[in-house]
Fold this sequence. Notes:
Number of helices: 8
Bound molecules: protoporphyrin IX containing FE
CATH topology: Globin-like
Order of helices and strands: HHHHHHHH
Shape: globular
CATH class: Mainly Alpha
Low-confidence stretches: none
Strand content: under 5%
Structural class: mainly alpha
CATH architecture: Orthogonal Bundle
Radius of gyration: 14 Å
Largest sheet: none
Distance between the termini: 45 Å
Helix content: 55-70%
Amino acid sequence: MDSVGTSLFERLGGxxxxxxxxxxxxHVMATDPMAKECFATHAGKDVTESxxxxxxxxxxxxxxxxxxxxxxxxPRLRMRHAPFAIGEKEANQWLYCMLKAMDEVKIERxxxxxxxxxxxxxxxxxxxx
Length: 129
Ligand code: HEM
């Protein structure tokens, strides 16, 4: 099938698939001992809200509806992550959860490869220690 002109958001499977991915991502983070420290930074957070926000944010990043921007304005990710201690370990654990979630919801390797560099770059950018 010709994918020229379709966004990553559409090729991934649209809102339904993205929601499934982010739910799985937070489920992995909450249950996999490999992600313990990363999960700890979310202590006291309502994961339902985190799931919604990350889904809305990634929709815009992947060329789908810019839902996060429409509701909250500029994401200011570095500023919003400043209250949480993000070192190498936490950043790597975030990536680990995302990679595991992408496999669990069966996102094709080719599509994963299109977004992984972005996740790596942002996780590194958000490190504050
Ligand atoms: C590619 C990397 C990442 C992306 C794209 C990302 C994206 C986001 C977004 C969009 C939000 C919601 C912001 C808001 O409106 O409040 C958020 C919240 C948050 N992020 Fe990240 N993040 C990343 C990495 C990390 C890492 C490495 C950590 C720490 C281990 C982390 C911890 C948190 C916490 C604790 C919240 C607050 C949750 C909430 O308020 O519901 N993030 N992130």
